[in-house]
Design a protein that fits this description.
about 500 residues; mainly alpha; 25 helices
Length: about 500
């Protein structure tokens, strides 16, 4: 049995309208004159639901029924079908983008090459009008504005190399706008990844200058897309609250200027900034994070393609639970379960439901669920193991807690996925959890002076690290431990 060609699975992914347009494309003698390919495509499109493993032999018998070399003759036809499919995909995209602007720009280049100036000027005016009428800014629009200015500058240069041509400056300005937007987006991606993973990617050259700038040049400030990404990049790069608030205010005032995918991306990076601050123990950012999520959910920005990222789902649950929004979170977990990608749905739902049960003190259910979680990503590993450690602590399962702590340390020594700072933050959490638990077990048989010394040492160690996983939980356990040991005065001292 022949392995099915990729062409058949490509056709299977098309909807009814796309299949009809592709068949019309293949039947056009301009794009394809081979009758065998037309017959093969029409037959393949009609095989809805047929097992792909049977298609190769059936297709070969259809076209070459009495030929023993039918499979060898079928192979080049399928390769040509795949080439036509790829060409059609590209043309579909070009035709859809801003009403065919990309096609018009290509036509302008050809009109200039042929010296058809009257036609060129008319089409150039039409294209400019279409771009000016665009309701939102995106990267395609900035690219096309630059290409139109470049086309006009080249057209004027053919008339006189020394004329005063405003298109030259427009071409340069629009190039700067397009590149600045692209560079800022790339810079945001690098800064976000650096906070979690080892990233060796070199940022765009322009980013170094933008990172040190307090303000953009006026012609860039006038571009909402560039200004928005500049504020987000400065938020991530400088790690401060001022640019975060400015970015939030700017998006609230200018969100109609962006399409939904772009707006979702901007809010997502601001959410990453909030998450970073929360991980540093700045719990005041929890409310800001929750505000971000509510905005995005209300605007439908977290399910743009019908699906929600499993990481957005996880972060929303965590934020809501930390703020005590338990009922809202429980409803959210179940309401958006089917919005998760199918391949991640079960794992994400199970993990987050376990988190809900942990937050609501239903600890037995936590253990039942965490056993089912697969560590398909390092973030699940860190989150699940942290939750499991905390659960064992709460249930007073000392043997299980120590065994888990040992396995985590061995895992982190073998794996080099987390950044050094993130690894240290996780290891410190493991060590401090063990120290809290050991003191909870030992204090009754210790001298009071020694208990106080260990409490103060724990207080110092929890407080001295800026990079620490779950610092709020550790402080909570320390306060409970100090009160249990009879050192409530230390808790009051800390509060002061």
């Amino acid at each position: 049995m022949k392995k099915p060609h990729l062409f058949f699975s490509a056709l299977h992914a098309l909807d009814a309208g796309e299949k009809a347009r592709f068949e019309a494309f293949v039947r056009s003698p301009y794009f394809n004159k081979h009758e065998g390919i037309r017959q093969l495509v029409a037959w393949a499109l009609a095989q809805n639901g047929a097992p792909q493993a049977d298609l190769m032999d059936a297709a070969a018998r259809l076209l070459f029924p009495d030929d023993s070399l039918r499979h060898k003759k079928l192979a080049p036809l399928l390769s040509q079908c795949m080439r036509l499919y790829e060409e059609w995909l590209g043309m579909e995209l070009l035709r859809r983008q801003k009403g065919g602007v990309a096609v018009q720009l290509a036509a302008l280049e050809q009109l200039r090459a042929r010296g058809q100036w009257k036609h060129h000027d008319r089409l150039s005016r039409q294209t400019a009008k279409k771009l000016d009428a665009a309701a939102v800014q995106d990267l395609d629009l900035l690219e096309w504005q630059f290409k139109l200015a470049r086309e006009e500058e080249q057209r004027r240069a053919l008339e006189s190399a020394f004329s005063e041509d405003p298109w030259l400056q427009q071409k340069i300005d629009r190039l700067d706008v397009w590149y600045a937007a692209q560079a800022l987006i790339a810079g945001c991606e690098i800064e976000t990844r650096r906070a979690v993973l080892n990233v060796a990617a070199r940022p765009p050259v322009l980013i170094e200058w933008l990172g040190n700038a307090d303000q953009l040049p006026d012609f860039l400030v006038a571009q909402p897309l560039v200004q928005a990404w500049f504020l987000v990049y400065q938020t991530l790069k400088r790690d401060d609250d001022t640019h975060f608030r400015q970015a939030m205010d700017f998006l609230a005032a200018n969100h109609p200027a962006f399409d939904r995918p772009m707006l979702a991306s901007l809010y997502n990076y601001l959410g990453n900034f909030c998450a970073r601050q929360i991980n540093k123990g700045r719990s005041g950012y929890l409310s800001a994070m929750f505000e971000l999520y509510r905005i995005q959910l209300e605007m439908g920005l977290l399910t743009l393609d019908g699906y929600m990222s499993e990481w957005q789902y996880k972060n929303i649950v965590a934020t809501g639970l930390l703020l005590g929004q338990n009922e809202w979170v429980y409803q959210f977990i179940h309401e958006y379960r089917d919005a998760l990608p199918e391949e991640a749905r079960g794992n994400a739902f199970t993990y987050n439901l376990a988190y809900y049960y942990y937050a609501t003190r239903q600890l037995d259910k936590v253990l039942e669920l965490l056993i089912q979680v697969e560590y398909r990503d390092i973030r699940y590993y860190v989150g699940a193991k942290s939750m499991l450690l905390k659960t064992y602590y709460e249930l007073d399962e000392g043997e299980a807690l120590r065994a888990l702590a040992s396995s985590i340390k061995q895992y982190l020594k073998r794996k080099d996925i987390l950044t050094q700072s993130r690894r240290r933050a996780f290891m410190r959490f493991v060590d401090l959890t063990l120290k809290c638990y050991n003191l909870r077990q030992d204090w009754k048989i210790m001298h009071r002076t020694d208990v106080e010394k260990r409490l103060r040492k724990l207080q110092y160690e929890i407080g001295k690290y800026h990079e620490l996983v779950n610092p709020d939980w550790l402080w909570q356990k320390w306060r409970e431990l100090a009160a249990e040991c009879g050192f409530g005065a230390l808790v009051e001292e800390l509060s002061e």
